[in-house]
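Quick note —
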Amino acid sequence: MNTSPPLDTTPPWCLARLPFAARLTLACFLVSVGIGYCSALVQLHFQHASPGELLPTPKDAVRTFHGPIASSEPQSRLEMLITADESLPWNGSGQMSAAFTTRSEGWKADIRQLARTLSASRRGEPSPEELEKAETLLRQKRLGERDALVAWIRAGADKSEYEADAFCLPPERDNAPLTEEFVEQQNGQRTIKIRSILETRCVRCHQEGGDDANASNYKLDTYENLSKYLKVEKSGPAMSLEKLAQTTHVHLLAFSMLYMLTGLLLSLTRYPGWLKIPLAITPLFVQVLDIACWWLARLPGDLGVRFAEAIPLTGAIVAVGLLLHIVLTLFDLFDRWGKLFLLLLFVGAGFGASLAYTQVIHPYLQAEARLDHELRKE
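Predicted structure written out below.
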């Protein structure tokens, strides 16, 4: 009778043969990668998701990488942003139209002041009806500013008119409501202070040391800085070529290194080749497809829209692939007691995530959607 212990068939290159300290270090690395990827998803929400949405939807991807579908003619980036719907995210891929209204400096105070001016008695606090009337009138004037700026852009965005701070409105907009401080009469003509409008509504953030640290990276304080965003983009994308190229190289370099490391670790596990080989390369391969869709989404028409709509799907496949890298590798690193500890850890993490969603994340998304609705009403 053979009483010798069974032979250890584990290949010498497997992770399971590493010293415990090395395996524990790799486990901490994989857990850190998972937490870091979750933080990247949080950033993705703030950067591209519509208010109230946890992550960007196909519609958000179309807006970000293809551009407004409703746009019937090519637009410059500045025109695209200041005419976009105010319900879109407040960033360079969504909208800046609220800079003239709800996100302008002193918006509510200006409504109150105008309501007092319109009030017959001019005493006491304005009534809700007076505030509503004042808001409607103020919005008309602010949108008149925006439309005047759009008219200047479509007329060629002449540098001399910018420097002179005087632009003659086209006849069809000559009687449009406008904020009085930006209107002048020169030689019997009604001129608009284009540079002053830009400085009041845009430059206060888009300058060195401006009100918004991120916006200060996209300066609009001189005509030379402004001119970059006055060029018509024929494909109509919401993301500029400059930003798209920057985002592409960051993802291809940084994330490729990350997916290579996690995929390499998975390839050194004891799982069968038919499982680990396709899983190890999936995030790397699909990431290339994902980024290819970013660029192909710039194609005009429905073809570009279809590529843009595919981006959330390719991104989800990459995320699931990375999750499998982490989970499968972690369970292969340890024996049954280690596996039991990991199982309890994942159950606890799942419970914590569920609690965080119901108590924090979901209420936050609801509040975000309500705030967006109120801002649009204003």
